[in-house]
Amino acid sequence: MNAFAALDDWIVAEARVATAEMLRAISATRLVMERPGFGQRVVPRPGSVLASPVPAHYDPEPDYFFHWFRDSALVIDALHVALLAGYAERSAVSHLHEFVEFTRSLQSLDGREFLRSGNFRAKVQPAFLQYVRADPEIAALSGDTVLADVRVNADGTPDFIRWSRPQNDGPALRAIALLRWWREFPELRRDRALLSALGDVLRTDLAFALAHVREPCGDVWEEESGCHYYTQLVQAEALTQGAAWLEENGQDAPARASQLAAQETLVRLDGFWNEADGFYRSRTDAASAQAGKDPNIAVILAVLHTGRAGGRHGVLDPGTQATLTALEEHFEGQYAINRERPTDRGPALGRYPSDHYYGGGAWFLATLAAAEFYFRLAFSLRSGAHLAAVAANLRFRQRLGAAEAAPRSEDWGRLALERGDSIMRTVRAFTPQSGELSEQFDRSTGAQTSAKHLSWSYAAFITAAASRAEALRPTRVADRGAPPAGTA
Ligand code: NOJ
Ligand code: NOJ
To answer: Does the C-beta of 222 come closer than 6 Å to ligand 1?
Structure first.
């Protein structure tokens, strides 16, 4: 068996493991999470998605036994990818129904009612009271504030633990995921109950994105408030795709408003390009690069989670390519596991240079994002798109194909595919036989750290593997424009 076939087989096998593991976090009604410090006993409801199904209490793994809006949307999106790629059984569709119902039920969540329904503080141990949110903050929970509240308990009750709030990306990511299901599985539209629940959730999420797209909020890493590339790009994309859906449903005025807000946001995002450093900033704060927050993998994740075609804020944008190069070059120098690695392996990536969270190691979802970026680029190039040759992406092109003299689009496609594979080899090197994936792997030892069985790591594996399969599929002549006579 040649090396290529071996990698191929491993990726397909691991994609199946990732799917099975990810499914364990969805509708995990058989699990129970005790938080004695907070006097809580949580039993997940159908449709909830755990960021990690492994109970932990910062001992040392973090407690991720919550339904995070961001993570759950990415998981539900990856589920549709797993179905299309054949990694999941058809029966997994039932989880979409449950997820939509669970999400809809959160619309009636009401903080005042929660406070009235019992004195939850009486059950919190004194040492834990400092981690509990103030009453007015809980009382303010209803409608839009719930959508920006980042996460809830998996039994659908509000999370009363203090956290970085608000974060506005969740509803946008959910809208993008649901619209993809809607497009890819038209047969679901025959189910009237699903259709009505889905419509409810979509309308609410899109209205939220429209109302809040101009406001600062907490970033994807839950660290600081500001105007963030990730949050804004996913909101812009939700509004763009949502506009088409709204129009189809006869809602012309909100459709137009969404379209306009999306365009305006994209213009604002163009301004995140930082000529001096040669990458897109992850936030508008100019001091962030000095503070070590840039380059930031959040920019690459934004590109993948929106999947934009064309040369602006997608894989064909020289600016996003340059950002990926900056990240790779940074982590190649920073992480011991990247130095002296075999020549056929790409770098392991983390979030950003000054990250200290659980040792600031490499993240599976960050490393997989780099691989997926190359696979998507390979697919675009093999389908006839062109790699821009501009100063901004000079290093990116050099690193891709230094040996080739003026490669053609197809050759660039092959080079991008190989580059993605070199990063998948690195992921394989740090994945145990069992196939389990945590959040991070240590920057010096490679040992898995932070949350165990992170659902988002599995989702990231699934979408990377499926993008690779897509990029490998023989391109049809018709994809590349006019077929030469007699060859189609
Ligand atoms: C900082 C981390 O970087 C972030 O990702 C995490 O979610 C928050 N702290 C909360 O623990
Ligand atoms: C920490 C990450 O920074 C955040 O993006 C994520 O939502 C949570 N972990 C849960 O996985």
So the answer is: yes
